[in-house]
């Protein structure tokens, strides 16, 4: 990537957009956006596409056209995890610790020690992924996907 005269980063055009968008933005915001893109080893355009896709996914979150858990309790748990998770993992979704997930999902009917078996594990592999590192166990919450684009391991519905 290289700096353009306007101060922004320019990356390869390795995508195939169907529409192009141009808009004005304060230079200070662009400078910070470029810093974020550089920190994440991506282009400004790729970062903007990702942000647009996330906002569109948020809007679609209430749509009947999304692949969601069939069970109402699991669907509500998945939506809660989407709302609570705040660490963005590039290309994977949003992440939170298992403890944060348990705190968000337990109630009088479901104690914390039952959250994993009642909610989180049944959401695997289509809606969440569980990983660990040296200090934490993480739940990565996959973003909702339109029904026509799902290919989940459990036979997610596909548009014929």
UniProtKB/TrEMBL annotation:
InterPro entries: CopG. Transmembrane segments: none annotated. Residues 1-10 have a biased composition (Gly residues). Residues 20-58 form the Ribbon-helix-helix protein CopG domain. It comes from the Archaea. CDD domains: RHH_CopG_NikR-like. Residues 1-20 are annotated as: Disordered. It holds the Pfam family RHH_1. This is Ribbon-helix-helix domain-containing protein. It comes from Halolamina litorea.
């Amino acid at each position: 990537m290289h700096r353009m005269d306007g101060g922004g980063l320019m990356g390869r055009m390795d995508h195939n957009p169907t529409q192009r968008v141009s808009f004005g933005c304060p230079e200070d915001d662009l400078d910070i956006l470029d810093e974020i893109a550089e920190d994440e080893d991506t282009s400004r355009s790729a970062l903007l596409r990702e942000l647009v896709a996330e906002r569109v996914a948020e809007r679609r979150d209430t749509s009947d056209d999304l692949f969601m858990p069939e069970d109402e309790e699991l669907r509500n748990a998945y939506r809660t995890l989407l709302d609570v998770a705040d660490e963005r993992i590039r290309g994977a979704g949003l992440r939170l610790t298992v403890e944060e997930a348990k705190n968000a999902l337990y109630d009088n009917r479901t104690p914390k020690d039952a959250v994993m078996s009642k909610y989180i594990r049944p959401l695997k592999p289509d809606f969440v992924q569980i990983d660990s590192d040296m200090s934490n166990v993480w739940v990565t919450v996959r973003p909702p996907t339109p029904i026509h684009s799902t290919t989940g391991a459990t036979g997610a519905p596909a548009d014929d």
